[in-house]
Amino acid sequence: MSLQGKVALVLGVANQRSIAWSIARALAQEGARLALTYQNERLRPNVEELASTIGAATFACDVSSDQDVAALMDWVGREMGGLDMLVHSVAYAPREGLEGRFVETPRDAFRIALDVSCYSLVALCRAAEPLMKARGGGSVLTMTYYGSEKVMPGYNLMGVAKAALESSVRYLAYELGASGIRVNAISAGPINTLAARGVSGFTEMRRTHAERAPLRRNIEVDEVGRTAAFLLGPGASGITGEVIYVDAGYHVMGV
């Protein structure tokens, strides 16, 4: 499981409750050198403060900008000496895509959600491939949710974006496998993050999950971090193109 000497880039840290932050801490505990990104100057102080606690470097990146993605990978190659692991924990949908009826989703909201939540993974993988290939391969991980498969009222547009993301994982795994790069996703149960609070009915979603999951509870964010460290590391060297559920077993239930 040791990640000593490996370089990891984690996108999506917002605060100490972020899934991305739990993953970053788990990777640091296994010995990885880390770099974290922040979207803009408003988020910079918080991300830099967290990064300092694990000795991570930081860099600005708006994943909806090809120029930002290219600049990020240039910086990683120059300052970090290469890249072994990429964590994509980024998702966004305008509020009008999460409220009301899905059929009334505005075209612009649909475009933005698919761009930020799905296409950004494709763009990052394309830019990261040369860095990972130069080091003999690497591993990519993204975050999804069961709302990609089943209707979760209130999840709406984000469910469609996550479905596209999971399909992208499979296509990327196929194409990047020749470069020795694995691509997987974790489907986590509902966690009380800043992003999750924007989903209508989230509190009820967590209550139902805890009642019906085989383990009769909600998951803890650190459980996702530990699973991520495994999937990104050598212990999962034969796993690619998969969606791994960390949801206390909720997804196996029919009712």
UniProtKB/TrEMBL annotation:
It is an enzyme of class 1 (oxidoreductase). Keywords: Fatty acid biosynthesis, Fatty acid metabolism, Lipid biosynthesis, Lipid metabolism, NAD, Oxidoreductase. InterPro entries: Enoyl-ACP_Rdtase_NADH (IPR014358), NAD(P)-bd_dom_sf (IPR036291), SDR_fam (IPR002347). Its EC number is 1.3.1.9. SUPFAM superfamilies: NAD(P)-binding Rossmann-fold domains. It catalyses: a 2,3-saturated acyl-[ACP] + NAD(+) = a (2E)-enoyl-[ACP] + NADH + H(+). Pfam families: adh_short_C2 (PF13561). Pathway: Lipid metabolism. Belongs to the short-chain dehydrogenases/reductases (SDR) family. FabI subfamily. This is Enoyl-[acyl-carrier-protein] reductase [NADH]. It comes from Geochorda subterranea. The lineage of its organism: Bacteria, Bacillati, Bacillota, Limnochordia, Limnochordales.
